[in-house]
Structure prediction request, 389 residues.
Amino acid sequence: MILELNETQKLIQDTARNFAQNELAPVAAQLDENPYSEENKKIFLGNLKKLAELGLMGINIKAEYGGSEAGVVAFSVAMTEIGRACASTAVTMSVNNMVAEVIQAVGKDDQKQKYCSKICSGEYSAGGFALTETSAGSDPSDMRTQAALEGNEWVVNGSKIFITSAEYAGCYVLWAVTDKDAKKGRGISTFILEQNDPGFSVGRAEHKMGQKSSATNELLFDNCRFPEDRLMGKLNDGFRVAVAELTGGRIGIGSMALGIGLAAMDYATRYAKDRIQFSQPIANFQAIQWMIAERYTELEAARLLLMNAAYQKENTDFFARESSMAKYFATEAAERACRSAVQMLGGYGYTAEYPVERYTRDTRIASIYEGTNEIQRVIIARDILRGLA
Prediction:
């Protein structure tokens, strides 16, 4: 593996960094403070449109479907830069890329042409990943939402929860049970859902600890109908598709968390150089220096794990262990970085006047979604044990 970025990857990284610093960082606190105002929603959606115009909403999507075709490593470094500035925007970008990748992976050519192009171009503000249910979180095979074929239409009944971008998504990748008598996990299929499909509605928005500008809603299906040709991939093969895409999506979440952790430590370290106590900068004290050394070392280790996982996904078909290791380690390292940043700022770190308070709230969810870190440990251990067997 070559650790140095190539020209395309550097260009994507620089593009994401410049946009994050100039457009996202100046409004991140404002959006977090009042994410439900019409003005702030307009700003947030405007930034999503700009991301699409920069080619960041389909980084690993082929050019023929409207994507940048820059690869997974480029996606990872871009996610880190966006995560440094605004985690709400970063998670939306991550899910958008993941939705487009699902459609590219298992959709028919006309589906790829229609939906990937609209996601990548910004015609759709976002794409939704409609998998999680009240009974199907860490175990998505236990979902209850059902789809039945009636004539030339699928009829869907049930609900989904915690769906990122639900309020403004133009389309969704939807999983539903199509064979209720099949063995658990075997009777699930994958569909494309459009925002205006009859019988479909978006439920209440969740009021969250962090990443507040990213809308998170329930989806409701009451005899929701859409054409038969919205099925993607093979009938009853959806669970395999979901697991595969979640594996890749963990690289995006880990990369975002890395960006948040770096932002927190960069701010706290600069603060420590200026903050005077006992007649000298607190950066002179060993306690502070050890925090700096430990947290930056862990974040660098996280970066290398993420680069390895991204490289493996880009070049091989086997990256589940690497992806889980990277997501698990990066999100935990980011949480430790944010806690240390608050500690370095003391009482100021606990106030909303300083950004480390927001970083700490924003990073907390990273160890939960795209598979909790407890699930990542299970995946890693099983793969190691299988290899030793």
The mean pLDDT is 96. Residues 163 and 216 are 5 Å apart (CA to CA).
